[in-house]
C-alpha cells in the first residue's frame, strides 16, 4: 500500500514520490519493503541554519501570554485530530504499526499538545518570605531557550509532541531530528502546525541519515540551551558527554529492561491480560514493554497456559490491515536481534511454547512468541528484546522476585500483579524504576511523569514535571521597599 492522495496533499513539496534532483534518501514501508517516498537529506549546515532561524523566531513567541500560546496550540491539537485517520494510516505505512494502534498513537500524540497548552498557563513563580526589612523575594519561570531534540521511530508522532508540547508551552523554539526510518510523520506534524498558526521558524524538522553529524551540532552549539533525546542508552551516553562542552540542560529517555512480577495471589486473568498488553503493544517495540516476566511458581503453569492462549490470538500481517494484531518489525537489524536472542535462549535450555521463528509472509515479520524456562544466564535477561517475544521466568519468594526485577542496570518501567494491597505497596516501593504499574500493563499518559532511573535516563516527560524541563527559574531580590 502507498501514500494516499490525501497524505500526498498534506505533505506537499517536503516529499517526492520519485527520486528528486535535490539530495534525498528513501523511506520504506516495512510491511512491504516498498519505497513510500523520498525526503531531503539534510546536513549539519542545514541544522545550524535552522538553529539561527529558531533563535530569531523565539522571542516573539516567548513574549506572548501563556493564554495566547495556548490558543495556537489548541488549534494544532484540533487539526491533528481532524486528520487522525490519515495520520494513523501514515504511522502504519511508515512504521508498520497495526492500524488500530496507529490511530491511538495519533490521539496520544495530540494529547500532549492539548495538555501542555493548558499546563503552560500554570508555569508559576512564587513569593518567598523576606529575610530582611524592606525586601521582596520572588521567583519567575522563563523559557530555557532554543531546544534541540532527537526522537525515535517507534512512536513517530508522540515522541515528538511529548517534547514540542512543553517546549512551545514554555515559550521555546525547537529543532528536531526524527529517526531516518520515520521522518514523514515528523514532516506531517510540522505542516499541520503551520496550518494551525504556529509561527514560521519556531519548529524545524531535520531529516537525515547522518544522525551523528546532526547530533554533534545539537549537542555542541551554544545556541541550543536544552537538549532532549529518546533512544538507546549507548547513544544517550555519548550525547550526554557531548552536551557537557556547553553545559546544556538535558533530558534523556533511554533503554529499559522492564520486569513484570506476577505473584501467586494475583488475579490471573488480569495479570495475563496486563502482561500481554505490555509485551505485544507495537509488536514489542516500546521501551516500556515487558522484557522479563517473572511468575511465582505456584501459578506458573496456569499462567503459561493462559498467556500462550492470549498471545496466539494475535495475527501477524501488514500494519495497514484492520485484522492485524502484530505488524512487522521496523527493519532487518531488529529482526536479527530477536532471532539472536531466541536462538541463544533455546540453546541454553529455554522452551518455545509459541512461535519462535521468522514468519513466512515476509523477512520483517516475527509472530507472537512465548519462551518458558528462561534463566538468568540467557542474553535476553540482560538485553531489551524489542520484539514480540515473551520470556517467562519462574521464581519462589517475594524477595527473589524483587531481586530479579532489580537485577539490571536499567530502571525505566516495571509491573507487578497481586491482590494483596499491602504487598503491592511494599513491592512498588522496592522496585527500582521510574514508573511502576500495579495491576496495570499500560500506564503511559500525558498527565503523568514519564522517565527512568539508573541507566534509563535523566529527567521526566509529560505532566507538570515535563513542563519544568523547558523552564528556568529566576530568583529576584528587591530591596528598598521601605
Automatic annotation (TrEMBL):
Active site, renumbered: 253
Keyword Signal: no
Alphabetically ordered keywords of this record: Oxidoreductase
Aldehyde dehydrogenase domain ranges (all copies): 24-476
Domain of life: Bacteria
InterPro entries cross-referenced by the UniProt entry: Ald_DH/histidinol_DH, Ald_DH_C, Ald_DH_CS_CYS, Ald_DH_CS_GLU, Ald_DH_N, Aldehyde_DH_dom, Aldehyde_DH_Superfamily
Record's keyword annotation contains Oxidoreductase: yes
UniProt similarity note: Belongs to the aldehyde dehydrogenase family.
PANTHER family: SUCCINATE-SEMIALDEHYDE DEHYDROGENASE, MITOCHONDRIAL
Protein's recorded name: NAD-dependent succinate-semialdehyde dehydrogenase
Originating species: Asticcacaulis aquaticus
Lineage, broadest ranks: Bacteria, Pseudomonadati, Pseudomonadota, Alphaproteobacteria, Caulobacterales
